[in-house]
Amino acid sequence: MTETVKEAEPKQIEFKAEIRQLLDILIHSLYSNQEIFLRELLSNASDALNRIKFEMLTNRDVLNPDAELAIWLEADEDNRTLTIHDTGIGMAEDEIVGGLGTIAHSGAKEFLKAMEEAGKKGQGVTTDVIGQFGVGFYSVFMVAEEVKVTSRSFRPDAQAVTWTSTGQGAYSVTPAEKTDRGTVIEIKLKEEAKEYARNYRLRQVVKAHSDFVAFPIYLKEEKPPAEGETGKKIEWPQINEQTAIWRQSAREVDAEKYKSFYQQFTFDFGDPLLRVHTSADAPVQFYALLFVPSKKDYRLFGGKDDYGLKLYARKVLIKENFKDLLPNYLRFIEGVVDSEDIPLNVSREMVQATPLLEKIKGTLVRRLATELGNLADEEPDKYRTFWREFGPFIKEGIATDPDAKSRFMDLLRFPSSSSENADDLVSLKQYADRMKPDQNEIYYILGDDFKVLSRSPHLEYFRKHNLEVLYLTDPLDSFMLINLADYNGKPLKNVDDAGLDLPEADKTDEETPAEETISSDDFEKLVARFKSVLGERVESVRESKLLTDSPARLVNPADAMNASMQRVQRLLGKDYQVPKKILEINRHNALIQNLAERLAVNDSDPLVDVLIEQLYANELVTEGLHPNPAEMVTRIYELMQAASKG
Ligand code: ADP
Ligand code: MG
Question: For the chain, how many structural domains are there in total?
């Protein structure tokens, strides 16, 4: 296809210093993701095709206006070569010299810096992002011994030119014989990279990285001669999907197509739980196709950061794992965003600073919140799966992002005192809808486990008066409550809060038990004894108005750090100190009555203090606040010994 021309002496030109340094690293190091070189070259070809498309709209004087806009791949295993040919805009001599080596590239320096920093952090160097720095072309030297680029510009009078380099120090430029428009890149592969001269491998890499390039990519296949014929048959099948389904209207895409796209895109063989396919024209033009996967991805654990959306500008992928189009807590979402308003040649670092993206982000978050809400209403089974897999991310959002609260609060689900079991969940809306008419607060209790919570003494009063209590058993709930103080104006209150605003009706129908088995005097004495034994460890000791069965409970003083903050501190394990609480005791409980009697009979009865200590320890355990339950064992033996005396 190309030959170097006549007597012209090749011009040797040195690479700029930073490019030499970049090439040195690319040539001499081993990278696991070498295959991305093909993506970079195909994306350049696709850029060139987009540009000629534009040129043809505005300029009638274009070479080969009828040439098909496409890319052709041709591999030769025996000679270890790969050729990539496009009918794009092409390059004249000054453009090839400028584009491929001479213009000082700030991107090369920045890329080197990024690689160095990744190396320092021990993350291993990754070339995957090279394209974002505007130096993607050089990634070809990860696989090439020598590269020859022959190009002819679309300008009818331009001279074709060949650029050749081994990537070591310099390149040469000579005039070339090429009559048609476009660029041909001939790569002599390194021995270690010979796999890229095999068609099956090329298909794989195209599928993985360039399937949705907007122009056809053809691959040369040699078929054995058909029967009765001689000579191999040459075919050029198209190997990319090409259609950007996110740019179609949702009506045009059937379920099967979505599914195969999703599976190719995510390598998840399940069905997505939710799909959001949307587009907008104003204020920003964009298309988006987002998925909630069928399950949590391993990539979301262990500090890996290869999540994020694919960002396309006019069907050209400009960034994979783009993290700035969704808030971090929605990092489980997969998908594509494609915007006409992001210029193709925008410096990719700049993308992050543009207000366009903020607008897109706002729209996406709103849509996702709405669609997840609809999923909850319309497909409760799927929503349950969603909540199991991704609920913690929603809670994280509410804990960390003030905007998330109003948007995602209705997605929250909790078990409650009305639940049959831990999987029987209610939403805040359901809770609010069935609140008693004069109930002003939403009640919750914090604890580690559904079963333990359902036995909590705090619930006695609420059960008796038919007040529902949410069970917050996830460690994240405590963090979330720091931001979630109310739901539609109704404050969320811990049942252990000393200053609850309980419904009036229920306070008045508080029944006083018929028989007063201990005198007020004896009870007061017992309260005083509790205070002297527990001393500074409690805020105070007083009679409980709410307990009916249990002997005691710990409540949170009104001015104290709230219980969820205390739990957060305990979970973080930072200088944990048992918080000071109010101990409420129940004078109608048999144990309390026995204690009061014992004390009345003999105020130096040694068992009284031991029982008080153990009662307090029991309450700490119930609340999940005991720093070291094993401490109780000696005391329990002492009590068992007394009990077994008979
Ligand atoms: P970027 O694509 O980000 O500009 P690259 O290093 O990939 O950076 O490419 C450098 C430049 O070389 C491109 O901007 C373009 O001008 C030119 N170029 C590369 N490949 C082609 C091609 N196939 N056709 C036309 N121009 C190309
Ligand atoms: Mg490029």
Answer: 4
Task: Please state whether beta strands 334-339 and 442-446 pair in parallel, antiparallel, or not at all (unpaired).
Answer: unpaired
Q: Is the CB of 45 under 6 A from ligand 1?
A: yes
Q: Is 44 in the pocket of ligand 1 (CB under 6 A)?
A: yes
Q: What percent of the chain has pLDDT over 90?
A: 55
Last residue of a domain, one of 454, 486, 508: 508
The answer to whether residues 227 and 261 belong to one domain is no
Closest CA to 288 of 401, 406, 371, 398: 371
**Hey, whose CA ends up nearest to atom 16 of ligand 1?**
99
For 504-529, write each residue's pLDDT tens digit.
754 444 555 545 678 899 999 999 99
Residue at 85 is within a domain? yes
SS3 179: coil
Structure confidence at residue 506 (pLDDT):
47
Domain that holds residue 132: 4-235
- Is residue 377 within 8 Å of residue 427, measured between CB atoms? no
- What span, in angstroms and rounded, lies between the C-alpha atoms of 234 and 224? 9
Q: To test ligand 1's pocket by mutation, which of 15, 93, 137, 215 has the most ligand atoms within 8 angstroms of CB? A: 137
Q: Are both 549 and 455 inside the same structural domain?
A: no
Residue 162: CB within 6 Å of ligand 1? no
* Ligand 2 geometric centre to CA of 343 (Å): 14
Ligand nearest to the CA of 132: 1
Q: Is the pLDDT of residue 564 over 90?
A: no
d(CA 357, CA 342): 9
Question: Does residue 56 sit within a domain?
Answer: yes
Asked whether the beta carbons of 159 and 92 are under 8 A apart, the reply is yes
| Closest C-alpha to 79, from 234, 197, 204, 235 | 197
Each residue's pLDDT tens digit, 409-461? 999 999 999 999 999 999 999 999 999 999 999 999 988 889 888 889 899 99
Ligand 1 neighbourhood includes 87 CB (under 6 angstroms): no
215 lies in the same domain as 113: yes
Query: Is residue 397 included in any domain, yes or no?
Result: no
Q: How far is the CA of 139 from the centre of ligand 1 (A)?
A: 12
Decide: 154 in ligand 1 pocket, CB within 6 A. Answer: no
The domain boundary, picked from 382, 404, 423, lies at: 382
Q: Using CA atoms, how far apart are residues 576 and 579, in angstroms rounded to an integer? A: 9
Instruction: Find the CATH number of the domain harbouring 47.
Output: 3.30.565.10
Across the chain, mean pLDDT equals 86
Q: Which ligand is nearest to the CA of 94?
A: 1
Q: In this structure, are 485 and 554 located in the same domain?
A: no
Residue 223 forms part of a structural domain:
yes
pLDDT per residue as tens digits for the range 264-293? 677 676 889 999 999 998 888 999 999 999
Centre of ligand 2 from the C-alpha of residue 619, in Å: 66
Q: How far is the CA of 77 from the centre of ligand 1 (A)?
A: 26
Please indicate, yes or no, whether residues 226 and 289 belong to a single structural domain of this protein. Answer: no
Shared domain check, 106 and 12: yes
Atom number of ligand 1 nearest to Cα 90: 25
Give CA–CA dist 565/571, Å, rounded: 10
State the residue for tokens 């006695």.
460
